[in-house]
Write a structure and sequence with these properties.
By secondary structure, the protein is α+β, with helices and mostly antiparallel strands. It is built from five helices and eight strands; from the N terminus they run ββααβββαβαβαβ. It has one domain: Gcn5-related N-acetyltransferase (GNAT) (Aminopeptidase, 3-Layer(aba) Sandwich). Helices cover 22% and strands 26% of the residues. α3 links the parallel β5 and β6. Coenzyme A (COA) binds next to β5, α3, β6 and α4.
Length: 185
């Protein structure tokens, strides 16, 4: 999943690829530099979940990252949603299309797991709307509210928290999934 592209604004080569353990520290620093928009994650948590991250490198430096988390639905486990998390582009590299490329790469990667939907909770809904996400009611993702928002240290009420819930529905062109038949029994 190594994508090389010429970044027009600066004429430097940009690489988007799956993260490895060497990326953990710079990922941790990048997330930490966006405390208002992102949930700060300890280095140990990033290391444990390093296989879930995608990174963007430009000029030999990490300039972007994103990760995901699987949200199971009790009783219908193959019907899970996946939340895209920790999406960030270094400030000096914003506005050049890298955030879009990163999220599109993540959508492609996450879609291979065949979730019913990919969700985000975000302060920048317009950015995600441009990539095909649509606003949804937080009441529609109660499994996220219980597994994540209940532990939030920033906002006491997930329904009045300013983060907007959005979803992208992946489309599969290989027909209905036979493995899901009868699962909820
Ligand atoms: C949100 C973020 C990832 C965008 O990265 P970026 O590289 O600047 O985004 P791009 O240049 O790829 O922008 C793609 C499109 O979204 C738009 N866009 C980018 N940031 C936006 C914002 N904050 N609000 C509205 N639109 C935005 C761009 O104008 C562009 O539109 P266009 O295709 O019509 O030209 C970056 O600003 C960031 O890291 N923010 C801090 C962390 C954060 O908020 N993460 C998301 C939390 S889930």
């Amino acid at each position: 999943m190594k994508v090389k592209t010429q970044e027009n604004g600066r004429g430097r080569e940009v690489t988007i690829r799956q993260a490895d353990l060497r990326d953990a520290r710079p990922i941790c620093a990048l997330i930490k530099s966006n405390p208002l928009e992102l949930i700060v994650r300890p280095l140990g948590d990033i290391v444990r979940n390093i296989d879930r991250f995608t990174v963007v490198y430009a000029g030999g430096r990490l300039v972007g990252c994103a990760s995901y988390s699987v949200l199971p639905e009790a009783g219908n486990f193959s019907h899970a949603s996946i939340e895209m998390t920790s999406v960030a582009i270094r400030k000096s590299w914003r506005g050049r299309g890298l955030g879009r490329k990163l999220v599109e790469t993540m959508v492609e990667r996450i879609s291979q797991l065949r979730p019913v939907q990919i969700i985000v909770l975000t302060y920048t809904p317009d950015f995600f709307r441009k990539i095909g996400f649509e606003r949804i009611a937080k009441q529609d993702i109660m499994y996220k509210i219980y597994s994540g928002c209940m532990n939030c240290t920033k906002h006491s009420n997930p329904f009045t928290c300013p983060e907007v819930a959005m979803a992208y529905t992946p489309k599969f062109d290989d027909g209905p999934d036979e493995t899901q038949k009868g699962e909820s029994k």
